[in-house]
Amino acid sequence: MARTRFKIDTKKNKSFGLNITSMTDMFTILLVFLLQNFAASEVQIDPVDKLRLPTSVSDRNPVDGIKISINQSELKIDQKTIAAVTNNEVDKSSLDPSDSNFIKPLFDELQKINAELVAKKDVKLGRILLQADQELPYSALRKVMYTASMAGFPNLKLVTTVGN
Amino acid sequence: MSRRRFKPQIDHNSEFELDLAPLLAVMVKLVPVLLVSSAFVQMMIIETELPQVVQQAIAKEEKKEKPTVVTLDIDRETGVKVTTNKNGKETVRSVAMVNKTDFNFSGVKEVLIQVKQENPEVFKIEFNPAANVPYKEIVKMMDTVRKSNDNKIQFPVTDEKTGTTTQTDFMFPEVQFSNVTDG
Fold it and tell me: How many Cβ atoms are within 10 Å of B83's Cβ, its own excluded?
C-alpha cells in the first residue's frame, strides 16, 4: 500500500487581516512623548562634544548670538577651533605676553565677526552665547569674558541645561 | 390595504472593526519628523529676565549719584562674603563653607534676603569669584541670588508711571562680574 504524504492546505490567494491596534497604541505613546519634548525655542544650540553644561533653574529661551564654547581641550567659535586648553586653562601660547587675560586669536576672530555684523546690522551684534564646561575654573572663563568685552561683545549669555 | 412602514433591521449585538490603517500611516510619518526635530537636551540661558516695573526701578537706581552696591566675594577657602556699600558705609556679612568643601547656598540666600529687605531698590549685584571657583558653583550662586523662590518672601517695587507698589520675588536679577577687567 502506497503511503500518501501529508500536505498542508495553503490557499495562495487567501488574504488575511493584520491586527495593528497594539502598534497604534505604541505609536500614540511615542507621539505624545515626542510632542512633549518638542523644542519651542527659535534658536537651536547644538551640544558641543566633551562639554558638560551646568544646570540652572533659568527658564529663559536662548537668543541668537555668536556661539563660543570652551571645554577641557579647546576653545571654539561655532565649529572653528581658536585656542587649545591645557590643565583647565587657555594655553599660554594663545595669550598676550603683556596681558595674561587677553586671548589674542579669540580677539582677532571676534573683531572680524564684529565688523561683518556691524555692516549687516545683525541681531547678533554684541551678543555672545557662552557654552562652558561646568568643571572649568572661573579664571578660564574670565579670560574669555575679558577678551569678548574688549572685542565689542559685552552682552554675555551663559548657556545652561534645565535642572533643579 | 394598509401600507407597512419600512423598518431597517439593526443588529445591536453585532461587532465591527475600526480601520486604524490611515491613523497608523499618519503616525508613521509624524514620528520620524518629530524624532529628527526634537531636542532631547533642553538648553536655557541666564540673563536679566525682568518685568517692566523692575527694569524701571533698576534704571532709577542707576541714575542715583551714589547707588547702593551689593558685592559677593566667592572663595573656596573662606566662603562667601556679602558686602553692602550704602552712602559710603560698608556692611560685611560672611557665610562660611559647609564642611570646608561646599558653599552654603541656603545661608547666602538668608543673608541676601536680609540685604534685599533693607535695600528693596537695589536689583544689581556684583560677583567677585576667586580664580579657582568652578563654573557650576557660579551658576548655582547666580540662581540663588536671582529670586527668593518663596511666595511668602516678596519685596516691594514701585511703578514709576502709576506710583503703585507691587510685590516681586526678584532679589538681584542683574548679575555683573566686576573683576573681569581687574589685573
Answer: 17
